[in-house]
Amino acid sequence: MELIAKSLLQQLQQQSSDAPALEGSVLHLTFGQLRQRVDRMAAQLRALSLSVIGLQADNGPQWLIADLACQQVGVVLVPLPVFFSAGQLSHTIAASGMQAILADDCERFTFLPETGQAKTYIDDLALIEIPGAQSVALPAETAKVTFTSGSTGAPRGVCLANETQLATAAALARELQFLGCRRHLCVLPLATLLENVAGAYTCWLLGGLVIAPGLDSLGLTGSSQLDMARLCGSIEHHRPDSLILLPQMLKQLVAAVERGWEPPDSLKFIAVGGGKVAADLLLRARHLGLPVFEGYGLSECGSVVALNLPGSDRPGAAGRPLPHCAISVSDGEVLVRGPRYLGYLGEPAEADEWLPTGDLGTIDEEGFLYITGRRKNILISSFGRNISPEWIESEVLLSPAIAQCVVVGDDRPNCSALISPLPGTDGAAIDDWLVRVNQRLPDYAKLREWRPLPEPLTFPGGLLTANGRPRRSEIANTYADLIDSMYETARVS
């Protein structure tokens, strides 16, 4: 597949007008009909003379039509996750300088002064004007601003060009075209680049059908609640060729298969990303008939930069670099060269050729990338040992009885863990499991103690990032007394 244009819209013009392109819970569109809907919405947006628009809506055709229409008319789009709090929305609105929001639920924005009721509707989405919007200087060619919070700190707006997003999707399409995937089911929120770019865009470049039902029908609510029965039912109903999952979703899907659920034989490729995945979990999934492959990416590079593939795969590795970029390691940190962001809001992009990712890793002799942790998340024990908490957490989370795990131990003699067990799991079962985990770990990384979390970690509660990663400093502050108590005794050996 050749990259023949700098615009996704130009690429879509190459697809047959009669071929199915986009399917929601009710609406079904061919590529010809999709182009017509995008043209109509683009004309409406052009008449409003807006330059920056937010988009907060459930997964569905309207979300993707709005995305494409903004690209066509040159309006900067700021995706807003549906689980953002009022405070996070206020920050995003002010930081991006958006003048209006396209939304499927006006009630989420009653905190805005003088909004009243939306007077304009565009393709079934309400247009909510932002009173007193202040213009913000954006880098030239900015087409999308995606907010990413990383592991700590306030959300940062990553400015991306259309060309960068398309380069990622085109690279993925080139690598995946031999699989013949033509039906992609969106199970992650479209507000994430991983689903928007790596999922929908890539599927369209392959001439395939993007299936985007509402998140509720998939069993997803909030930022981290998942009803596996609904998700499994939706996968059975839609019979997709491909999916993209987060590690916790894969873990629960594997558990569902082990309980007797039979995945459809249509599945050809399941990508998993957003966090480290234990090799044992991948192997369990494949043994059960789930074609799962781990990848790695970051918003600053337009999403995916490395991916395992059938015939080019190492369980435990994040894969080889995609053809549009190069990856190296310097002083233990992963660096990426290739298409990248234009800068953060209020901050110019790094001028260096190689982008520091903040992730620690290694590259083997065959070019496979292994992510070993985050530079800023490294624990340094009181014995001077550097330890990646993600490594230990991935081993602990192999247990289907454990929903969440955060390893602590900075400036301490040993590692301990805060754990959120699934309902009905007793402490003795966790003890037994951690004994087994410790048998696989070197002495300096063994867990000597654990405590149950008083309540699950959540994004709205400020203890998880939007991608489900723990906010370690916030967790350490919130549960300081609980963490201190773990160093009074040691019962896990």
Please give the structural blueprint.
Elements: H1 8-12, E1 20-23, E2 28-30, H2 31-48, E3 52-56, H3 61-73, E4 76-79, H4 86-96, E5 100-103, E6 120-122, E7 125-129, E8 144-148, E9 156-160, H5 162-176, E10 183-185, H6 193-205, E11 209-211, E12 220-221, E13 225-226, H7 228-238, E14 242-245, H8 247-258, E15 269-272, H9 279-287, E16 292-298, E17 303-307, E18 320-321, E19 326-330, E20 333-337, E21 343-344, E22 347-348, E23 355-363, E24 369-374, E25 379-380, E26 386-387, H10 389-396, E27 402-408, E28 415-421, H11 427-439, E29 447-452, H12 472-478, H13 480-485
Parallel strand pairs: 1-11, 3-4, 3-5, 10-11, 14-15, 15-16, 28-29
Antiparallel strand pairs: 1-2, 5-7, 6-7, 8-9, 9-21, 12-13, 16-17, 17-18, 19-20, 20-23, 21-22, 23-24, 25-26, 27-28
| Rg from Cα | 22 Å
CATH class annotation of the largest domain: Alpha Beta
Class from helix and strand fractions: alpha/beta
Overall strand count: 29
For the termini, the CA-CA separation is 54 Å
Query: Could you name the CATH topology of the largest domain?
Result: Rossmann fold
Fraction of residues in helix: 25-40%
Number of DSSP helices?
13
Low-confidence spans: 1-5
Q: How confident overall, as mean pLDDT? A: 90
Please state the overall shape, judged from the principal axes of the Cα atoms: globular
Read across the widest sheet, the strand sequence of neighbours is 4-3-5-7-6
Entry summary:
The protein has 13 helices and 29 strands. It has 493 residues and is of the alpha/beta class.
Task: Provide a descriptive summary of the structure in words.
- This protein folds into three domains: 25-136, 3-Layer(aba) Sandwich (Rossmann fold); 162-376, ANL, N-terminal domain (Rossmann fold); 379-485, 2-Layer Sandwich (GMP Synthetase, Chain A, domain 3).
- The strands form eight sheets. The chain has a five-stranded mixed sheet, covered by helices on one side.
- The protein is globular.
- The chain is an alpha/beta fold.
- Residues 1-5 have low confidence and may be disordered.
- The protein has 13 helices and 29 strands.
